[in-house]
Amino acid sequence: MLAERVVITFFPLIFAVIFIGTGIAFRRQHIDMDGVPPIPRIIFLPSKYAILVLWAGTVAQSWGAPLSFVTVPEGVRWTACAIWATGFIVLFLGLFRLGKSLRVGSPKEATTLKTDGLYRFSRNPMYVGVYLTLTAATLYTLNPIALALALFSIAVHHRIVLAEERFLAGAFGPAYQDYCHRVRRYL
Length: 187
Known about the structure:
- The chain has a single domain (2-182), classed as Four Helix Bundle (Hemerythrin (Met), subunit A) (Up-down Bundle), CATH 1.20.120.1630.
- The protein contains five helices and no strands.
- The longest helix is centred in the last third of the chain and has 39 residues, at 144-182.
- It is globular.
- By secondary structure, it is an all-alpha fold.
- The model has no long low-confidence stretch (mean pLDDT 95).
């Protein structure tokens, strides 16, 4: 049980440290990490918060909070832990590769098109990572509310991806179209 707690708690904690640290570093360099929401804020923001709620709920369950309505089998919990760790690792690798192009929403200023690292295999590795963590949270808790939140977040984030693709097509033109022909949206 301790190993599960460590795995489940470690990754979102590190994500928070990295994300907050990146925001502070960006501010010092006068870089605005807040982009323009590519879809209406009324669904953009709740989808982001739903992810945080699912991550927090998963951590809480690992520490004994009774979020499951059923006993989650050990094999399912460990499978969820493996998917959770994989999702966060993919998310971190995508985040690090974006570097100073990282934004929450579409950038307000010119950025560069990233096509190397994990971006050679997926146009959206950070979203793939998030989707994996949401799948893991649902498996780990076997909670129907977690499933509903995960499905909501995935559906909204898919809309975000489609809107971001339109933005990138306009910003990078033929280079982005060529990239789209070579690399799949998710996997």
